[in-house]
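Morning. Coffee machine broken again, so started the prediction first thing and wrote up yesterday's gels while waiting. Chain of 266 residues, entered below exactly as on the submission form.
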Amino acid sequence: MECIKMPKWSWYHVRTSELEKFSSIIPRDVTSYFSQFVKKISSPCENGLYVYTLSPSQTCVYGSFLYDQDKKDAKIQKFLHYFVAHGILITVQEKEEEDFQKLIHNSSFSVKNCNSSAEGLCAILSIFISHYLRKVDYFENNFRNVLWDFYHHNNIAVLERIYHIRHELFMNTHVFRLIQEVLQGLKEAWLENLTNTLCYKQTHVKLERGLQLVKEYQEELDTMIHLQEVVSSHRGNEIMKSLTVLTAVSTPLTALGALWGMNFNA
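Came back before lunch.
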């Protein structure tokens, strides 16, 4: 367990097995929500967001989102579980993930500058966005190579590469969408108390940048696929024309040969 205490709130980063110890420090008004949170993450992991706003003291947001997915195996997934209420933020990891631990340590400095638990979760989400923006930069290099291969070759192998990097882009887009949902849930819960903060505004702008990038790459990939289909269709038409000409030329010769053979039989 790791704990970072700020003047107005505390952040606990724990393992699943340590959650039972927190019942005593959870604000009384949200203990029932915390019990639901523990129950949810004890079952098989799936994306989910839950927002409760009955009163200021009972405002609570919790859930899970998929922050990493293996490119080839759909069963290899990594989730971030979070529970946010007044004065407390809890993040949960299921396994010892080195990349996640590094991410947590990188975000601790920015989290310490936050004045609320909801703002603290925004800071953590901002670190995730930065991580995936770097992945988009790496994707851009692959995209540029495929773009020139498409220009010079434009064959089935290039089309397969286009579909491969398109799948990679979809995975990045999916994470951005999940982070967007969490930000919207936090906004719903705390409204202008959160949206007027510098951390939220910066996180929101950074997310918009990521979504805009992947949208533009998606449009370019769709254009490339469409062009590939047009070229393939054109080539298919050329082949059909060649076969038609060949048939038109060979049919009279075949008929003449048949008549020639019939004359000999007579």
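Strands lie at 2-5, 10-15, 48-52, 60-69, 77-85, 88-93. Going to sketch it on the whiteboard this afternoon.
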